[in-house]
């Protein structure tokens, strides 16, 4: 029986889908450190995580049974994707399932900060009645600057326009502007134009330190700042300085460079205690609807990969869309992408009298993926011969 380990309070749908597919599933509530994870992965074929568990090269080296990882979130920078591919471990994530949840909290943060809700709320809880319109604004007619115009940025763009905002965006890749949104040629141009600046960039290493003192100084006086993307993108000490100085009127932050591994663990940040700052514990995509959708999407992907070899939407392996074929014996062969592999596979199959009924090949960087369907059982000698080839990464027989 295939074994699955699910960490970080995944939605119950994740477990039920895998159990219905015949997996022996173990769940744990929090993240694990490297040593704990290595121990827990003994004999495990499928690992399910969110953003806090770090799957390093060392972890992968000590988990020979691991076949696939499900990242039940958008980001995959917590996983060494190249090492996983080199060891034949397929990684899947949920790039779309919580987009709406992140967009909605961004809208909520923008309205709350623009109306000074955080300051008014704190004063009321302290027993202070301060009915005043000073510093409170409608978002209608204001300009939203979106940095990172991907799945979240584009949906936020559409909703913001529907609320009467003007939208400008900046992205290093070519992106089609939706509605009346305008592309800015430079980041500085966006910062000098926008009343609200919101970050929606991915976790690539090149985005580290993207936003610091220089960028906050470029923002318009009295503007608002949001980061619901990655914690390491922003210098939060510089953000605090800009807020205390009054240059930035308010901020909402959902992600941090260092985050507690488990609920209840202490949280430290230079932004704590500021009355016009909204701090949330990396819950931008954490609605019940989003977590259920993510649980279903990723569990179906990892289940299908183990059952049929399908790698559709894998973030680190060549993508092949495959369906189960009853009565067919399938060889799923991951290998280093070097010349002559397909010829060698077919020569080996011919030598052992294996008749090919269907075959697909895809490559991605250093990794190639050959999937071969045979109409009769494949002898163990074929498995041994292909596995022994110098370019072999991982061979699975799916019947």
From TrEMBL:
EC code: 1.1.1.399, 1.1.1.95
Catalytic activity: (R)-2-hydroxyglutarate + NAD(+) = 2-oxoglutarate + NADH + H(+); (2R)-3-phosphoglycerate + NAD(+) = 3-phosphooxypyruvate + NADH + H(+)
CDD domains found in the cross-reference section: ACT_3PGDH, PGDH_3
Associated pathway: Amino-acid biosynthesis; L-serine biosynthesis; L-serine from 3-phospho-D-glycerate: step 1/3
GO MF terms, alphabetically ordered: phosphoglycerate dehydrogenase activity
Superkingdom in the source lineage: Bacteria
Broad EC category: oxidoreductase
SUPFAM superfamilies (alphabetical): ACT-like, Formate/glycerate dehydrogenase catalytic domain-like, NAD(P)-binding Rossmann-fold domains
Domain ACT intervals: 330-399
Keywords for this protein: Amino-acid biosynthesis, NAD, Oxidoreductase, Serine biosynthesis
Described purpose of this protein according to its UniProt entry: Catalyzes the reversible oxidation of 3-phospho-D-glycerate to 3-phosphonooxypyruvate, the first step of the phosphorylated L-serine biosynthesis pathway. Also catalyzes the reversible oxidation of 2-hydroxyglutarate to 2-oxoglutarate.
Family stated for the protein in its record: Belongs to the D-isomer specific 2-hydroxyacid dehydrogenase family.
Name the record gives this protein: D-3-phosphoglycerate dehydrogenase
Species this protein is from: Cellulomonas fengjieae
